Amino acid sequence: MAFSRLRRTTAQKKALLRDLVTELIIHEHIQTTEAKAKELKKVADKMVTLGKKGTLAARRQAAKTVRPRKVSETQTVLQKLFDEIAPRFVDRPGGYTRVYKIMPRKGDNAPMAIIEFVE
What are the pLDDT digits (tens) for 9-53? Predict the structure, then answer.
C-alpha cells in the first residue's frame, strides 16, 4: 500500500498518524486536512481490524501505533478501541471510517475534511 509523504519525513509522518489515530479513537470524529484524513483512514481501519481480533498479539500490535493516553479516569485509548469501538463493527467486513469534505480552511484555503467512525 503506497502512503502519501504529506511533505514530511517518514518518522514525522508516522508520529503525525499516531497522534491523529489516537485523537480519532478518543473523540470518534476529528477535523483535519483532506490529505491527512485520507491517510488516517487507512491506519484507523487497520486499528479497528486489530480490535475485532481481540487477541493479545493484536492488542500489542495496536499498542505500537496508538499513543498511551487516558480517555477517562479508568479507561485508556487502547481499552476504548478494543472494548467499545471494535465490538460495534463485528458484522462489518471493512470500511469503518468515512471522510466528509467540508469548506476550505480560512487562512490558507487548504481543503478540509471530517473523519469519523461509521454507525
Answer: 999 999 999 999 999 999 999 999 999 999 999 999 999 999 999
CATH number at residue 32: 3.90.1030.10
Whether residue 1 lies inside any domain: the answer is: no
Element (H, E) at 14: helix 10-27
In a domain, 102, yes or no: yes
8 Å CB contact between 16 and 8: yes
> How far is Cα 61 from Cα 47, in angstroms, rounded to an integer?
9
Between CA 51 and CA 80 the distance in angstroms is: 10
Other beta carbons within 10 angstroms of residue 10's beta carbon come to: 9
Whole-prediction pTM value?
0.93
User: In total, how many domains does the chain have?
Assistant: 1
pLDDT of residue 3: 63
